Request: fold
Amino acid sequence: MSLIKSYLKSYLTSLYRVARSLKWIITKKEQPKITIVVPYFNDDLNFFKFCLLSIKFQFYRNLEILIIDDCSKPEKVQEISKVIPKHARIISHEKNKGLSAARNTGLNHANGSYILFLDADDMLHAFILYNWIADIAFRSKPPQVIGSYGRNTALYPYQSDSMKFLKGLLYTKNRATLSFVNVAGYLPFNIHACLLDKSMLLENNFFFDETMLDGAEDWDFWYKIMRDGFLFSDSGAYAGIYRQRKKSMSRSKALLHFDESYQLIEKAFARDEDSKVFTEPWFRYQELNLKISRCIRELTVNFLQTNTVEKSLWDFVDSKYQHYVTNYLDADRYIIEGISKFHCSKKTADSTDLNLIKNIKEKIMKSA
Reply:
């Protein structure tokens, strides 16, 4: 019974969020154009048809569809030209360049304000574009947010895709905004699970590495973006269906794929002098967070006890991390914990505490 209640609650939440997304878009009286880039190289026609159907059944309509043919066989190109939507464009490579190059071609030819990379054997849930647009375009977000992401649903060869599509109506609790620090070297999500701000990609020269031909190129792409200080917002929705195939790149080239992945993990644990924000290894920021959170709590307690600031945060933390702390650390959370500690309670901040939190923050985090 509890499982049924859980599902009903999730479906009702889904309907509420879709209605709220529609309201935002109607109120704004605009639907920013989304470009969907689908790389294609001799893929299974049936899988490709399902991919296109998942685009066709999107409730969000202001779309541009780019099929990037990576020098497929002529008969394959003929096949797909018969099934693609009339408003879709095929852009063909003269020679096979690989998945990264196909995605980069799509990025360079995109006319939309937002862009989504969708592999030819994957599928989108019907409401996801509305939810992403509502999340990334119309909600108040930090300026570092470059995209909105969703959950994946894996589809194995022995499973029915109809049941998986039903899961697309479910919602989960929103997780934290993802950054280089809290991703901790892991792959944050699959390529089709994130809508991206195209202008921010181009302005910062974020492209896929075309030398990576054995997989993990999406992991590398997310890693570069996050290491330069950009964030991904959680839409709380299921993005689409990720097909698990025996002949996929990660299975057919398992050791080569592992080698690419291994190098990416090593990068996360190393310094990166070229990074605009996160030059230190990720665990260095975990250590910093632990020290800073404790420091802010105790400085808050001391301020409430004495009504004076004997020392600021920068007496304990190197000022070279000021940009990171100011822009990426949730200092309010640790101040609230300090207030709770001072009052010996589990008290959480309410509207009456906002001025107090602001006052404490200004005093204990005064510029170095």
